[in-house]
Amino acid sequence: MSDSTPFRYNANELFDWICQKADFVLLDVRNEKEFGNWSVEGPTFFPYINIPYFNFMEDVQGSVAQIPANQKIRIVCAKEGSAKYVADLLCQNGFTDVGYLQDGIVGWGNALIPKLVTPKKSPYSLYQFIRPGKASCSYLLIYKGEAMVFDPARNIDAYLAIAEKHDSKIGKTFETHRQADYISGSPALGEKVGATIHVNSVDFEGAAFAFEPVADEEIFAWAKGGPEVRALHTPGHTMGSTSYLIDNKYLLTGDTIFINTAGRPDLGGKWEKWARELYLTLMLRLRNLPDETLVLPGHYTNWDEADSDLLIMEQIGILRRNVIAFKMANVMRFTEFIQENMRPQPGVYAEIRRVNGGWLKVSPEEADTMDLGKNECGASNYGKVGVSAESLRSTT
Description:
By secondary structure, this protein is an alpha/beta fold. It has 2 domains: 7-108, Rhodanese-like domain (Oxidized Rhodanese, domain 1, 3-Layer(aba) Sandwich); 112-360, Metallo-beta-lactamase, Chain A, CATH 3.60.15.10. The protein has 15 helices and 18 strands. The strands form 3 sheets. Strands 6-7-8-9-10-11-12 form a 7-stranded mixed β-sheet. It has a 6-stranded mixed β-sheet with strand order 13-14-15-16-17-18. The longest helix is centred in the C-terminal third of the chain and has 15 residues, at 271-285.
């Protein structure tokens, strides 16, 4: 027996521990279906086991016996309560270093990890916020007391905290497109700090909140100079998709370009028309950008895409050489690639699009449920893999 007590840890701490090559066993006590559908992932591998909570209720000793002895144990469940219950049981049965995740897998799903993109001596600061539970990225740009945020998640306190550290106020928030896989934080930023919401009106026509329409090649000014922020209309994933070029160096692409593929053009139900637009974006609208332009996408597929600093970022010249979506011989081959890789989109995406247009109101608990799970926004992610050998030969 042990007289130790379990402790509570948060999702950002869990991410840090995983990055440091975890010295613990992660015990997930959700049911097998939930565990199989979506689980904790990080840039390194770690011991990760699943023993459902109900097993502990029915057979405490048999369940405890399945857990490696003399190990640090970190527990995750759906919302926290079940993990706390199991943590108490483990402490009562001899385990001495046991923690349970604050807010459960919901907390993991909402975690945002800020990473500084720009050099420390840069006159402005650009942060990439990695959301490991969603495999998504959002951005915060700060210059002399002003801040702009791009594609924010609902956890707006994470952006506000970094802005506050820089004695800056978020005055503008930008949406690269109307998101389908997660609920946007832009309306909340508008309400909480008065940030102006900037969107391409093609995607937000009739939205139930105030916004400023963005035009192709529009430049957004700062009060005291600052890096140029230029909007580039890059349709294909959606017809309103807009990328943002910062200081002619950093291209925030939303779901237009990822590190290993392009965004799906089929989520709107007009895949053939939108695939053509996406092809033209990749081959024509972005062709004059220098190869050294750094692409900062809205999503990633896995941690192999991260660099040594765990930034999801790559030069567009390298993507032009390596990403199959850039290497199609013509628009017909590209649309065939899209058709070969199409798969059903998650049913909740239609509801999320309505929420992000302001037409559907949901409670915070409902939003947490809708937001769970990795994105499925890439043209070949999680579906059929790539293209056939014959198709590959046809592109060269």
